[in-house]
Amino acid sequence: MKNLVLTLIAVFCLIACEKEERQAEQFSWVGEWNATNIVINDTLQTIPIFQQGTILKYISITIPEGDSGEIEGKTFKNGMGFDFKLMMENQIEFEFYGGTKREEDKWGTAFSEIILDTKSFQVDAVNLSFYDINNKLIILFTKPQ
Fold it and tell me: Contact 98/65 with Cβ under 8 angstroms?
């Protein structure tokens, strides 16, 4: 009986350790992210860093904690906000968009239009990927260093 109890304790410890390991592998999407690639004309293109005549150095977003709220976005020339709501299994719904009104370059225009097509996302330690309804990658972000 004593051996059975010790065996059960060992099994429960192993299960608990495995569960903690799996939970540790989950990454947070909260924080600041810089856009590195975006779809323009159905092609994923690399976004240049800081172009002459721009106000900001990166196209970026800042995501707050919580299942809903406002994602703050910045293009090379404008600031904007996107109200969002997280759904199940990394699904996201954007509900509202607003921002400043400076004339955009092709990168800012593409970003402000395509981000609203986002329906799901994936995140790891350094990348945040936004996907459309067809599960096609439309924006790739990286954590600033």
Answer: no
